[in-house]
Each structure stands twice: as C-alpha cells, then as structure tokens.
Design goal:
Blueprint (H helix, E strand, L loop, with lengths): L3 E6 L3 H14 L3 E7 L11 H5 L5 H4 L4 H6 L3 E4 L3 E5 L4 E4 L4 E3 L2 E4 L19
Parallel strand pairs: 1-2, 1-7, 2-3
Antiparallel strand pairs: 4-5, 5-6
The structure holds flavin-adenine dinucleotide.
Flavin-adenine dinucleotide (FAD) binds next to helix 1, strand 2 and helix 2.
Length: about 130
C-alpha cells in the first residue's frame, strides 16, 4: 500500500509533538516531511533564555536530534520556509524553490508576539 504523504510546516514544539503521536499510532501510515525556517532540529523553546544566558547548551535543550528524524524516515528540511500552498494541487513551495506534494498538511508555524510601541524598539538587536 502506498503511504500517504504528510507534510508538517513548522519544526517547533507543537508540530513535532503532533508527529510523535502520529508515529505512536501509525508509524507506517505516512511518508513524513518536515520544514522548519530555523536552522536547528526541534528544541525546547521555553529553555531558550538559559542558552542565551550561557547557563545551558543548545544540545541540552534539543528535543530530538538528527538521528531521531532519520530513525523515523522523516525528511527534514531546516532553514527552509514554506512560502506557498496550492490547496487545489496539494503542493507546497519553499523559499528554496522546492515543491513537495502532500496528502495531508499540518501547519504548526507558531505565532508572532505583539511588540509594544516603545521608542527604540525598531533598532537592530532589540
Ligand atoms: C524565551 C521563551 C520562554 C518561554 N517560556 C514559556 C513558558 O514558561 N511556558 C509556556 O507555556 N510557554 C513559554 N514560551 C512559549 C512557547 O515556547 C511557545 O508557546 C511554543 O514554543 C509554541 O510552539 P509552536 O510549535 O506552536 O510554535 P514555535 O515554537 O513558534 O514553532 C513554530 C516553528 O515554525 C517555524 N515556521 C514558521 N513559519 C514557517 C514556514 N512558513 N515554513 C517553515 N517553518 C516555519 C518557525 O521558524 C518555528 O520554528 C516561551 C517562549 C520563549 C521564546
């Protein structure tokens, strides 16, 4: 039987948690592809402050390393942003001009916080 193609957009905590559940209940059902704009594997974003403060290494907040993606035959594209979804043709396109067909698509792209209009907030590094 042909596997369904499942594409996850967003390699963050929510999206990858969803993939963990899918693997638990039907690891053979889908051919999995994940796109993440960030250049890293998935990590615990809540602990990011500790890394930036130098108290923890990135490795320690990594949820799954590359081996996990390989073990589950997940095609992982980090540093690659999905820029277009053609719902009729069921194909996504990335900023690397890659096109991938899907049967099922999960969007787990997070959100952007509201930045209050404090003077200087537009400066680089703020
Ligand atoms: C410093 C810090 C501390 C926090 N502390 C807490 C806490 O104590 N408790 C709590 O509940 N929450 C906390 N949060 C919030 C928590 O981290 C988020 O709620 C959680 O990470 C959301 O997960 P997510 O997967 O929905 O989104 P995200 O973590 O934002 O992941 C979405 C991913 O999708 C990627 N993406 C977006 N668009 C595209 C695209 N078009 N193509 C490909 N990839 C894309 C993004 O680059 C990102 O990697 C904290 C956040 C930060 C930054």
């Amino acid at each position: 039987m042909n596997k369904q193609k499942l594409v996850l957009v967003g390699n963050g905590m929510a999206g990858v948690r969803c993939i963990e559940e899918i693997l638990k209940y039907g690891s053979n059902t889908f051919e999995l592809t994940i796109f993440g704009s960030e250049s890293h594997v998935t990590y615990n974003r809540i602990l990011l402050s500790s890394v930036l403060q130098g108290n923890t290494s990135f490795r320690e907040i990594t949820i799954h390393n590359y081996d996990w993606y390989m073990k589950h035959n997940i095609a992982l594209f980090t540093g690659e942003t999905v820029v277009k979804i053609d719902q009729e043709k069921k194909v996504i396109k990335t900023d690397h001009d890659r096109e991938v067909i899907y049967d099922k698509l999960i969007l787990a792209t997070g959100s952007l916080p509201i930045v209050p209009p404090i003077p200087g907030v537009e400066k680089e590094g703020v």
